Predict the 3D structure of the following.
Amino acid sequence: MLREKQNKLIILSVALIGVLSCFNIVAMEGERHPLHVAVEDGDVELVEKLIANHVNADKRCAYVNAKEDGLAPLHLAARYGYTQIASKLIVAGAEVTARCLMGMTPLHHTDDQKTAELLVSKGANLFAFDVGNRTPLEHATTSEHATTSEYVSWLKERVASIVQEKRQKLEEDAKSAFKKFNQENNVRWFEL
């Protein structure tokens, strides 16, 4: 707890002074980048200050727990349902398709529908597989998080909608290719 308070004090001091060279030192000593701490704390103001000081919005961190390794700040914002912070990170250049070492995207980490809607609207892949071959939908239905049935229903509807769109596009492409083939090869079909 004392270490967390010290890290927060160092981060605030650095952010207010704007000494960018200290960020890497703080991240090395505390194992976490200041932006990760600010995101985990849900501190919108500090996130804004760090982004304004050109902190890398896609900075990866290394936790002791291997499952947590390689998380970008957007993974954390998604996990905690901090939609406003996630939006700011995306505007600052965070990748919505970024993967942690477990192959999970921010969409795998969220159980918040508003955050998921934001991520999907910005290009998150509903069909991305993690290293366990699970999609965000599969992760949500088997998650330790408190995933709501409304969120799971929303995910299912989005997946079904995309599958339907792709099926229709495939049918249209097949019809078009068949018609083109017939025209190029002067094939005529007669109805009996």
User: Anything to note?
Assistant: Residues 19-30, 62-67 have pLDDT under 50 and may be disordered. The chain is about 60% helix and 0% strand.
